[in-house]
């Protein structure tokens, strides 16, 4: 999937279109339970009056306000979407990604959870094992995010990125089962950021995990090939020493091939995948990786890729 590199559109959406998208998912949940339209969270959203703001265009909501309405779906979601958006934007920034990519990560983070509203609220609070039918409903939540956000003018790109929030790089995620680079980089950042924030928040079926335990769990998932290792590295804040300076960058010189290999690694590719892309042997890729490790003073692929990006070497 190709993400446009055009400038991000203004962070305002039509209030009526936002509410229509919320009603779309809320009424899907109501239909599944054969209850009158509009669950209680949706009623609260529809009755919401945005605070006065001199900069607000008439009949518009900010994406942050839309995120707050989305989080009305469950009492334990308060502030979740904003935290995910900020974590995704911060990770993209620390990875050295450009401002447009950072903004796309942030915007998608704000609205990624709207599809949850298509699932009856009671299901999200179940503590025990779930039936296959219920698991299938949960699997489709990112699809309903994509479907609902396309009802809102100006959010087509955000809808596409947000719909990857449940994907995992090994194909075990929701809803596409996308493998590897099929998930755009923004989607990979968002998927890891949403998991990172969720682990540190209490849920009806478990307590909140500490940042240390959340980081360890996320690292295990990255090691298993489910998350982008560099994204997990920056989310955890596990960098090799202090932030490198401009003078450090001047003292490190990577060969053109080493830069190409590190650039591919930073995108989550294995040695075999890099070898195929560059038409060299996996053993040669390993040699370039080890050489780059020595020059950068790193011992892991994730740390090396992160440091190289931070120093603008790749």
From TrEMBL:
<dbReference type="InterPro" id="IPR037522">
    <property type="entry name" value="HD_GYP_dom"/>
</dbReference>
<dbReference type="InterPro" id="IPR052020">
    <property type="entry name" value="Cyclic_di-GMP/3'3'-cGAMP_PDE"/>
</dbReference>
<protein>
    <submittedName>
        <fullName>HD-GYP domain-containing protein (C-di-GMP phosphodiesterase class II)</fullName>
    </submittedName>
</protein>
<dbReference type="GO" id="GO:0006355">
    <property type="term" value="P:regulation of DNA-templated transcription"/>
</dbReference>
<dbReference type="GO" id="GO:0008081">
    <property type="term" value="F:phosphoric diester hydrolase activity"/>
</dbReference>
<dbReference type="Pfam" id="PF13487">
    <property type="entry name" value="HD_5"/>
</dbReference>
<dbReference type="InterPro" id="IPR003607">
    <property type="entry name" value="HD/PDEase_dom"/>
</dbReference>
<dbReference type="InterPro" id="IPR016032">
    <property type="entry name" value="Sig_transdc_resp-reg_C-effctor"/>
</dbReference>
<feature type="domain" description="HD-GYP">
    <location>
        <begin position="55"/>
        <end position="251"/>
    </location>
</feature>
<dbReference type="InterPro" id="IPR000792">
    <property type="entry name" value="Tscrpt_reg_LuxR_C"/>
</dbReference>
<feature type="domain" description="HTH luxR-type">
    <location>
        <begin position="247"/>
        <end position="312"/>
    </location>
</feature>
<dbReference type="GO" id="GO:0003677">
    <property type="term" value="F:DNA binding"/>
</dbReference>
<dbReference type="InterPro" id="IPR036388">
    <property type="entry name" value="WH-like_DNA-bd_sf"/>
</dbReference>
<dbReference type="Pfam" id="PF00196">
    <property type="entry name" value="GerE"/>
</dbReference>
């Amino acid at each position: 999937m190709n993400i446009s590199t055009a400038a991000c559109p203004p962070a305002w959406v039509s209030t009526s279109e936002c509410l229509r998208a919320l009603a779309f998912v809320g009424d899907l949940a109501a239909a599944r339970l054969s209850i009158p339209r509009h669950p209680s969270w949706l009623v609260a959203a529809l009755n919401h009056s945005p605070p006065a703001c001199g900069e607000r265009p008439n009949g518009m909501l900010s994406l942050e306000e839309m995120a707050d309405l989305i989080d009305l779906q469950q009492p334990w979601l308060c502030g979740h979407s904003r935290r995910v958006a900020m974590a995704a934007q911060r990770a993209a920034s620390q990875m050295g990604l450009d401002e447009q990519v950072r903004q796309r990560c942030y915007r998608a983070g704000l609205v990624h959870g709207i599809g949850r509203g298509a699932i009856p609220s009671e299901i999200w609070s179940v503590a025990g094992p779930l039936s296959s039918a219920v698991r299938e409903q949960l699997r489709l939540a990112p699809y309903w995010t994509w479907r609902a956000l396309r009802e809102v003018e100006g959010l087509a790109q955000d809808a596409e990125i947000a719909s990857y929030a449940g994907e995992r790089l090994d194909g075990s995620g929701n809803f596409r089962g996308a493998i590897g680079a099929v998930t755009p980089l923004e989607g990979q950042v968002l998927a890891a950021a949403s998991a990172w924030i969720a682990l540190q928040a209490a849920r009806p079926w478990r307590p909140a995990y500490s940042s240390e335990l959340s980081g360890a769990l996320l690292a295990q998932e990255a090691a298993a090939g489910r998350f982008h290792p560099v994204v997990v590295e920056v989310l955890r804040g596990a960098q090799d020493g202090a932030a490198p300076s401009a003078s450090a960058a001047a003292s490190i010189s990577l060969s053109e091939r080493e830069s190409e290999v590190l650039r591919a690694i930073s995108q989550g590719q294995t040695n075999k995948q890099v070898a195929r892309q560059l038409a060299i042997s996996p053993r040669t890729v390993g040699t370039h990786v080890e050489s780059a490790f020595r020059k950068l003073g790193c011992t892991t692929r994730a740390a090396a890729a992160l440091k190289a990006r931070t120093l603008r070497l790749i």
